[in-house]
Amino acid sequence: MQLISRGILSENPIFKLALSMCPAVGISTTVMNGLMLGIAVLFVQVFSSVTISLFKNKIHPRIRIPSYTLTIATWVTVIDLALAAYMPEAYAKMGIFVKLIVAFAIITMRLEMFACKESVKDSFWDGLGMGLGFLVGMMVIGLVRELLGSGTILGYDILGFKPLLFFILPSAGFFVVGLMMAFFNWIEIAYKRAKGLK
Amino acid sequence: MKDILTIIMRLTLSCMLAATVMGVAYLTTIKAKKHNEHVNEQKVRYALLGYSDQKPIPGSMALHSIYRYVVSDAGNQTIGYLLPGKEGFIFVTLDLEGKIVDNKEVKVEESSLAEREERDKIVRGIAGGKDVVFADQTIVVTDNGQRVAYLLDGKFTGFKTFIGVMLALDPQFSLLGLEILEHEEDPGLGAEIEQDYFKNQFKGKTFDTLKGMDVVKEPLPDKYFQALEGNIAEADAAAILNQYLEHDIYALTGATISSRSVNNGVKGIVKKFAYRLNILDAVLAEQKIAVAF
Question: I need a surface site. Which of A65, A71, B63, B262 has the fewest CB within 10 A?
Fold first, then answer.
């Protein structure tokens, strides 16, 4: 649906809206980390969007932000407990990061801009789109950083040596995000120009 | 005014709803979580001793748990050991000088000692209502009654927060193996303490080497790295590992503090354990207390 494609491409949270740069920079050191965290964020985003959309008429406008935070915190706790119980190996790798999802700007912003005004169905698709956009973004950054930093992809040794250990450090995260933003913008401009010419 | 009341009421209701959801999630998952923890602990213990699914533990081996508690009573502190005796359990209390204070028999099932809360309650009852704090758990591994290994848990400060480890020692207190149970170190840097090429450096270090061991900031020799990771044939690897047996620990690139924490933490755990065990063994022999190990 259009909402999903918007979440992944034209309004990608990391590259276009520049939200939730913190995890994009700090956690996307490998593709696996990016994937796991992306899935957790997707879950929280979808459920929070739907919950807020369901209660949108009952939330007093003055306490919007505390209500959003409360909802997000609840769902983050739920997925944290669920992962610890049912996927212990995955949880062992990214347990610390899951708890930080509460602070991600992307989820709160999405609730503020979309879920508290639109219908439940639309909120669901929007949440799914944003979550998928975040997931795709994290995996792409993770791919670049893992390949150039450790020479591996998903743990499989591709290059056999470590080109630049620098890419694993957080500062490289900023570099990669910035470069990817430029790259995505360039593609979009080229695409629009091609479309305009036609 | 009415607004404030509405806000308060709605917030309270939302909090209660959120708490219910979280509570339900907790209750549904707590059993699975505890089960996972136990299975993991068991796997780590067997792995440290050299056994796994492919090579199961022999029937002649038994694991005996010793639980150490610190008993406080109006500023007076004593150490209490909950040990398995020949039949049933014994609670031996020693003072800080290493002299025996008390020795009680405890009628309790081994299964009720598995969970920490139940065990704390039992020990509090034995100590006569005094303040008890659980210190640590040691597992003595015996084969046909003879001691073959000790398994210790330990937690110490790392670069970020804590690093939890499990060690295996042989009866002369040489390190048989080291396993990192939990940590919050940086992925790619401090988290490399989980890798074989760091952990296995500790394997085989004797008690004397351990006492003066330090961390050295030099690049890990390639041959040593291959031997630690298990990439070379066993016989050759054993020769290389022997060559480095008395060498200090090579630090991790970009994670000197984490390497030092693990080194000092392991040293501390082993030294303290050796000291305490010698005192305990002396008391048990002197008082002729019969124990299962």
Answer: A65
Upper half-sphere CA count for residue B90 (Cβ side, 13 Å): 19
For the beta carbon of residue A74, count every other beta carbon within 10 angstroms.
23
> Chain B partners of A33 at a C-beta cutoff of 8 Å?
187
Alpha-carbon span B166 to B176, nearest angstrom: 11
Distance (Å, whole) CA B165 – CA B51: 18
Query: CA of A180 to nearest chain B CA: how many angstroms apart?
Result: 22
Long-range contacts of range A50-54, CB-CB < 8 Å, 24 or more positions apart?
A50/A115, A50/A120, A50/A123, A50/A124, A50/A127, A51/A75, A52/A111, A52/A115, A52/A116, A52/A123, A53/A115, A53/A116, A53/A118, A53/A119, A53/A120, A53/A122, A53/A123, A53/A124, A54/A120
Calpha distance B12→A90 (Å, rounded):
35
Q: Supply the DSSP symbol for B108.
A: -
Chain-wide mean pLDDT for chain A? 81
pLDDT at B214 over 80: yes
Q: What is the mean pLDDT of residues B278-285?
A: 86
Task: Tell me the per-residue pLDDT of A131-144, one tens digit each, with 9 for 90 and over.
Answer: 888 888 888 888 88
Q: Do the Cβ atoms of B188 and A29 come within 8 Å?
A: yes
**Residue A130 vs residue A23, higher pLDDT:** A130
pLDDT class for B19, splitting at 50, 70, 90?
Answer: very high
DSSP-derived pairing of the beta strands B61-73 and B131-143: antiparallel
Largest Cα–Cα distance in chain B?
82
More confident residue, B135 or A169: B135
- Copy the structure tokens of residue B86: 């020949």
For A55-156, where are the alpha helices, taking DSSP H only? 64-86, 88-99, 105-110, 120-149
Our CA-based measurement puts residue A196 at a distance from the nearest CA of chain B, in whole angstroms, of 46
Q: Tell me, what's the pLDDT at A76?
A: 92
Residue A197 contacts B where some CB pair is shorter than 8 Å: no
Confidence of residue A126 (pLDDT cuts 50, 70, 90): confident
Residues forming a β-bridge with B154: B165
Beta bridge partners of B150: B140, B169
H helices present in chain B, as ranges? 2-49, 116-126, 196-199, 207-211, 222-229, 234-243, 256-287
CB neighbour list of residue B80: distance below 8 Å, 6 or more residues apart: B68, B69, B70, B71, B91, B92, B93, B94, B123, B126, B127, B132
Is ipTM over 0.85?
A: no
> Buried (b) or exposed (e) across A144-162, using 16+ Cβ within 10 A?
bbbbbbbbbbeeeeeeeee
